[in-house]
Write a structure and sequence with these properties.
Radius of gyration: 12 Å
Organism: Undibacterium jejuense
Number of helices: 4
Shape: globular
Number of strands: 0
Helix content: 40-55%
CATH topology: Non-ribosomal Peptide Synthetase Peptidyl Carrier Protein, Chain A
Number of domains: 1
Order of helices and strands: HHHH
InterPro entries: PP-bd_ACP (IPR009081)
Protein name: Acyl carrier protein
Distance between the termini: 10 Å
Length: 84
């Protein structure tokens, strides 16, 4: 789980590259996801890619849907639902 944040950022950058999106540069916890360079389809691809790589989709595991606003929120969701 120590590399979870790095894996998520790498997946964001790779997804943006494949989609031809211009990313914001360095990602920090306060980076607003809507300003990251990915559109809604890009985020859907990102979540599918992370599910394939990590083996789980935290958004499916939630009782109530939560939509992360920042990178820090996004990483926190993945951390919270990380398989034990």
């Amino acid at each position: 789980m120590n590399n979870l944040r790095a894996n998520i950022i790498a997946a964001i950058e790779e997804t943006a590259d494949v989609r031809g999106a211009n990313i914001v540069g360095a990602f920090v916890d306060e980076t607003v996801l809507l300003d990251s360079g990915l559109d809604s389809l890009g985020f859907a691809i990102l979540v599918a890619r992370l599910e394939e790589e990590l083996g789980y989709d935290p958004f499916v595991l939630m009782d109530e849907p939560v939509y992360p606003r920042t990178l820090g929120d996004f990483v926190a969701i993945y951390t919270k639902f990380y398989p034990k």
